[in-house]
Automatic annotation (TrEMBL):
Keywords for the protein's UniProt record, in alphabetical order: Glycosidase, Hydrolase
Domain named Glycoside hydrolase family 2 catalytic: residues: 254-570
UniProt-listed Gene3D superfamilies: Galactose-binding domain-like, Glycosidases, Immunoglobulins
Coiled coil feature spans: none
Keyword Hydrolase carried by entry: yes
Organism: Corynebacterium glucuronolyticum
Matching InterPro entries: Beta-gal/glucu_dom_sf, Galactose-bd-like_sf, GH, Glyco_hydro_2, Glyco_hydro_2_AS, Glyco_hydro_2_cat, Glyco_hydro_2_CS, Glyco_hydro_2_N
Gene behind this protein: uidA
The protein's name in its UniProt record: Beta-glucuronidase
Similarity comment: family membership: Belongs to the glycosyl hydrolase 2 family.
Lineage: Bacteria, Bacillati, Actinomycetota, Actinomycetes, Mycobacteriales
Domain Glycoside hydrolase family 2 immunoglobulin-like beta-sandwich, residue spans: 200-252
Biological processes annotated in GO: carbohydrate metabolic process; glucuronoside catabolic process
Length: 573
């Protein structure tokens, strides 16, 4: 899905600001800011703890000039949305972190107002990605449970645009451009007609929907070098341009060869973090300046990459990565497909993960939708080098194969040009996992020295080294990225004795883990967990959130940040 844009043939108006807000759809006695998470805003907990639908309402003007195809375009609504204009449903979407668009042309008159109501539902059940369960409590209240640790922020998290585009318009474009300067493009039009496609910086032009253009000695997009080109697509009616759309792209090649990950033919070593869209008060709302701050800190620390753990991030975030040469592992919202981990941690009997009562065919169908939608959104981004189709699913259950095999196939069909992977959980090592062979890259999350061998880093190193040797023995032809390793750390807490939760222990933990990575040739990347401290779900045994950040939640560096900066900038990792 293309991002909306303002240009010579298209128009858009952001609908950010205060909307009327209600918990029952009749009594609009509150306001809520868009974009924003609803949970940390109000002083009482009625909104915060609400399980169900939140209603947003606003009168909007349709400008007189909006006479063509008019739509409402959402960056995301977490987790489900029904959109009504003047009382009539104009669209609905399932899934909290991907964009959707509702055509409202027939419902509105340019030069008049209309009433927009957005019903945002925060409920997660087993058919959702991420999955969850609603539990009815003895006193009749509802509680939302889920199998991931980060807080289930809800709301309209990204800008809503009122869009006007020509009746005949560019619906989509797919661009594949390699380091040889060859650019294949494929335009989808709403109705057939003539087209002119130009790479603006190189002044090469094609006249078909699907063609190949060549740029002589292109300036490559590369890690740290966000060199972009612009593909201008013009739909023509004789001499006149009826629609125009500009899509940026980069010339670069990505390839997995043996246990190496090559970008433009050169081995790439990932340094960086699994991150979260998470801030005090904002929750998961997109905010340009917060993204910029995070990116500046990534640059300062010497990180060349990040993973959008555990859901697709805002398009503005991805644009920034494209422009600045930040390498991205792009992840679907499929986190928490693991009943075994939940059962294990809580000490209860683990339920089976793949069954009609838990992760089932409907979950899989929706998981497939998220893969399609993610790839449709981000396919042209040079920053994206690898798709991660899930985080820490249960893959010890033999039924995981029937669940994941079609999804891996689908990801490859949606994008034959990039490698694919999934992120492996500690309880599913090389001799228990049923799906590793379906993917190009092994991404593994390991907490030796934290969840196991806590406080005993010598043993942790030994166990981690042994496990890596097992992966290499069995799947030695594939590269390994350590997508998570980390230790909760309370900023300001110190000890001479490497006590858990201290800044000293976090540094010692990172040192020990780094030693293990450096001794394994297959390891081609390290993403510490997490970039910053983040909020976790209520009722979870954590002190005000997950404290594994290299930075605090307000982005102050812990000692670990200086350790990583030293490692990643000096050793050129
Ligand atoms: C991993 C999860 C991540 C958690 C992390 C932790 O992938 O989302 O936040 O553990 O426990 O299992 O800190």
């Amino acid at each position: 899905m293309l991002k909306p844009q303002q240009n010579e043939t298209r128009d858009l108006l952001p609908l950010d600001g205060f909307w009327q807000f209600s918990l029952d759809g009749t009594n609009y006695d509150r306001e809520m800011a868009v974009p924003g998470s609803v949970n940390d805003v109000f002083a009482d907990s009625e909104v915060r703890d609400h399980v169900g639908v939140y209603y947003y309402k606003r009168e909007i003007f349709i400008p007189r000039s909006f006479t063509d195809k008019v739509s409402l375009r959402f960056g995301s609504a977490t987790h489900h949305a029904v959109v009504r204009v003047n009382g009539e449903e104009v669209g609905r979407h399932k899934g909290g972190y991907l964009p959707f668009e509702c055509d409202i042309t027939e419902r509105v008159t340019p030069g008049t107002t209309c009433e927009v109501i957005v019903e945002v539902d925060n409920r997660l059940d087993m058919t959702c990605i991420p999955p969850g369960q609603i539990v009815e409590l003895p006193d009749g209240r509802l509680r939302q449970e889920y199998m991931h640790d980060f807080y289930n922020y809800t709301g309209i998290h990204r800008t809503i645009y009122l869009v006007n585009k020509p009746e005949r318009h560019v619906c989509d474009v797919r661009i594949v451009a390699g380091m040889d300067g060859v650019c294949h493009y494929e335009v989808t039009q709403s109705a057939p007609g003539d087209v002119r496609v130009t790479i603006e910086e190189a002044e090469v032009t094609g006249t078909g929907d699907k063609e190949t253009l060549t740029v002589d000695k292109p300036t490559l997009w590369a890690p740290g070098e966000g060199n972009l080109y612009t593909l201008r697509i013009e739909l023509l009616d004789g001499e006149s341009i009826v629609d125009c759309y500009r899509e940026q792209f980069g010339f670069r090649t990505v390839e997995v060869k043996g246990h190496e990950f090559l970008i433009n033919g050169k081995p790439f070593y990932f340094t960086g973090f699994g991150m979260h869209e998470d801030h005090e008060t904002l929750g998961k709302a997109h905010n340009d300046v917060s993204v910029q701050r995070d990116m500046e800190l990534l640059h300062w620390i010497g990180a060349n990459s990040l993973r959008t753990s555990h859901y697709p991030y805002a398009e503005e975030w991805m644009d920034y990565c494209d422009r600045h040469g930040i390498v991205v592992i792009d992840e679907t919202p499929a986190v928490g497909l693991n009943m075994a981990v939940a059962g294990g941690i809580l000490g209860t009997t683990a339920k089976k993960t793949y069954s009609p009562e838990s992760v089932n065919e409907k979950t899989q169908a929706h998981h497939a939708d998220t893969i399609r939608e993610l790839i449709a959104r981000d396919k042209n981004r040079p920053s994206v080098v690898l798709w991660s189709i899930a985080n820490e699913p249960d893959t010890t259950d033999p039924d995981s194969r029937a669940y994941f095999e079609p999804l891996a196939k689908l990801a490859r069909e949606c994008d034959p040009t990039r490698p694919i992977g999934y992120v492996n959980v500690m309880t599913s090592p090389y001799d228990k996992c049923h799906i590793t062979d379906l993917f190009d890259v092994m991404m593994i999350n390991r907490y030796y020295g934290w969840y196991v061998d806590a406080g005993d880093l010598e043993t942790a190193k030994q166990h981690f080294t042994e496990e890596l040797a097992g992966w290499v023995e069995r799947f030695g032809d594939k590269p390994i990225i350590i997508t998570e390793y980390g230790a909760d750390t309370v900023s300001g807490l110190h000890s001479l004795y490497n006590s858990l939760f201290t800044e000293d222990y976090q540094v010692a933990y990172l040192e020990a883990n780094s030693e293990v990575f450096d001794n394994c040739d297959n390891v081609i990347g390290e993403h510490m967990w997490n970039f910053a401290d983040f909020q976790t779900k209520p009722g979870y045994a954590r002190v005000d959130g997950n404290k594994k950040g290299a930075f605090t939640r307000d982005r102050r560096p812990k000692a670990a940040a200086r350790y990583l900066r030293n490692r990643w900038t000096n050793e050129n990792k």
